[in-house]
Amino acid sequence: MRAQSKDSKIFFSGRIVVISSILLLFTFFLAECGNGIFELNSGWRDREITVDGKNTDWLGAMMFFEEDNVSVGLLNDKNFFYICMIAEDEFIRTQVMRQGFTLWFDPDGSKEKTFGIKYPVGMQASDLPGGMRRDEQSIERPRQAPRRQMNELEILGPGKDEVKKMRVEEAKGIEINIEFSSGMLVYELKVPLIQSEQHPYAIGAEAGSSIGIGLETAKIERPDMTREMSGGRVGGGPTGGMRGGAGGRGMPGGRRPRMPQPLKIWAVVQLATAHTATQE
Q1: The domain that contains 42 carries what CATH number?
Q2: What does the DSSP assignment read for 6-32?
Q3: 205 with 275, same domain?
Q4: Domain shared by 248 and 275, yes or no
Q5: pLDDT tens, 48-79?
Q6: For residue 266, what are the CA distances in angstroms to 17, 26, 38, 239?
Q7: Which of 243, 261, 260 is nearest to 252 (CA)?
Q8: Residue 248 sits in which domain range?
Q9: Which residue in 153, 226, 151, 140 sits closest to 182, CA to CA?
Q10: pTM metric for this prediction
Q11: Is the same domain home to 149 and 205?
């Protein structure tokens, strides 16, 4: 398993490869600590982060999860936690926009879904431009998605099944954005660490502590994705993106296309402190 950058070639065993286009400014400890949970280090924010759905603020601070095919960056300061996720894979981009994307937090550093932010909230099949066509433009341009989807988010928890839907600007202290550039989906989030009257929606942790985070898309509905994989035609065909074999069901021998798995990454993240930054 390997990842290559302009300046170096780095080899790691396991599921995660660190990619750097410039000298890394932060030391990330990457290890799988069992039950599918990774141990990661957040970096101390040493730069201005503008939550605009662009990855230009994140050079040298991204980690590549090879099996999940996404890159993730983690930064924090005394008051806020910042995360960037970049997805180039078409299936993941489609999942995020159609099924919705949830970022979970556990202030106790475990895998409990204590506090979640769902954005985008997902869309119904009837909301998609052009119906169920496998149309890159309908997938990759959030401005073409229903305005409701991009202007609203959901706050999940702390109670079980507790959901608060609101406009993005009503989530005080939270800044969130998604944009598409050069075939990549870029998701950025800024969320308060400590809850207060000004920041009612927060992780509930301090810099220097450990938190659990989860990146999750919803379960994929089989009928929807089967049509998506066959270019909008159940069974494929000459114009359906996959040529049908025996049985005409989109794959040789009449086998159904294998369903891609929803995105699900869990990690324990050690938040940085200003003292940590001076030691690097």
Answers
A1: 2.60.40
A2: SS-EEE-SSSEEE--SS--SS----EE
A3: yes
A4: no
A5: 999 999 999 999 999 999 999 999 999 999 99
A6: 16, 21, 6, 39
A7: 243
A8: 221-259
A9: 140
A10: 0.74
A11: yes
